[in-house]
Amino acid sequence: GSVADIAILIVDIGEGFKPQTIQSIQVLEKNNTPFIIVGNKIDRIHHWETIRGRSSWKSWTEQSKDVQKTADSHYFKLLGQVAQHSRFNLTKYWEGIKDFDIKNDRLFVPMSAKEGEGLQDLLFVILAMAEKFARKDLVINDEDIAEGYVLESREEVGLGKTIDIVLTKGTIHVG
């Protein structure tokens, strides 16, 4: 949470928040990290008609009224959980992206990872938030000693020991 500029919380839209989701929100709030909530498995809503690659906004509006009502009930359940465990409002991204307020709002993106429905919506929201919250003060000086966070270390066949890092200062050079 302290390393990320933006976070994405993926929640099964049918099941809602789990203890680890609530814990993640608490960490993100503590670090003032903006986040997106993805309601995954939208295709599992009874009678949801999925079209691979379709926008989730378009998909949501093209469903039958009964299916929209069911989808809305899942969204309102998440909305209530956000209100219970967070200080933020949850807004469907197509209703709130223009008036997004970092202090009060978090965006909701429904999608089906399995079918790819809503994936372009998630990418759009990530890019919009990245642009909105890009750090203007970030300056990389090649002379600074490298600093960062190690995310993972492992043995790679043919390479040996490797690490995945987030570099926050300086530059790493061979040798």
Describe the structure.
The chain is α/β, with parallel strands linked by helices and 175 residues long. Helices cover 34% and strands 24% of the residues. The protein contains five helices and six strands. The chain has helices at residues 19-30, 56-62, 65-85, 93-96, 119-133; strands at residues 7-12, 35-40, 89-92, 105-110, 147-156, 160-169. The strands form two sheets. The protein has a four-stranded parallel sheet, with helices on both faces. It has a two-stranded antiparallel sheet with strand order 5-6. Strand 1 (7-12), helix 1 and strand 2 (35-40) form a beta-alpha-beta unit. The longest helix is centred in the middle third of the chain and has 21 residues, at 65-85. It is globular, with a radius of gyration of 19 Å. It starts with 6 loop residues before the first strand and ends in a 6-residue tail after the last strand.
